[in-house]
Amino acid sequence: VGCDRSKNLVDICGEKNFQAFVCDALSVPIRSGSCDACISIAVIHHFSTVERRLATIRELARLLRPGGTALIYVWAMEQEYKNQKSKYLKEKNGSKDTEEEINTGTTQRPLSDQMPDSSSQDSACSEGLLKDLKDKGCDAKPVADSRLPVHTNRTSFHSQDVLVPWHLRGGTKKKGEGIDTVLFPAGSKESQELSPVFHRYYHVFREGELEAACRSLDCVRLQKSYYDQGNWCVVLEKL
């Protein structure tokens, strides 16, 4: 059973005959102690305060039966670890298409490949999220007077709290034609309409930060923690 904040993404799951519903990760409408296992992938790093991130982990623990386990993945600030660059950094010199269309980091690919990226599977995700924004009367607008730094995709992080650009491919173009081949001045109204840019908030975790948050809860035991391709990961057991 899956859940997501986006109604349109949940609708896509329904069309594929998966069980999913809309909810907030801080308040999941499932009975306490009713789950054998819970998975939270690329979610908690979108909460903007220590208290909310901790409350999300506590909510995961509430759902678990005693002895149940939870797997959590969050984006790491350390994109180079033990002298090895993550796939996110290694793909810096990828195709222009890849650099132009940035996704949000989802579970539609293997756990070791969960960085903002472009793929054919993400088109439905992009369309669903854009429809959500339009339904709420939101338009794509450049970030102005933001106190948060805007991260440069495919580079190392210099701040834990950042806005990550998400370039939504728009307009019509021939197969194989990159969006950058459309001749409109950068920053023009036409250019923005063709390829609107959204900014998603991320709190990227430092080494040890996720483990420390989990250890502060007396209802779970930290079974395992590890680094996986630019992500910090933990496995928790409900006491």
TrEMBL record:
One of the record's GO cellular component terms: cytoplasm
Basic and acidic residues composition-biased segments: 88-97
Disordered: annotated segments: 88-125
Keywords recorded for this protein, A-Z: Methyltransferase, Transferase
A biological process term (GO) from this entry: tRNA methylation
Residues covered by the Methyltransferase type domain: 1-72
Molecular functions per Gene Ontology: S-adenosylmethionine-dependent methyltransferase activity; tRNA (5-carboxymethyluridine(34)-5-O)-methyltransferase activity; tRNA binding
Gene3D superfamilies for this protein: Vaccinia Virus protein VP39 (3.40.50.150)
Xref: Pfam families: Methyltransf_11
Transmembrane segments: none
Highest taxon listed in the record's lineage: Eukaryota
Sequence ranges of Low complexity compositional bias: 112-123
Protein name in the entry: ALKB8 protein
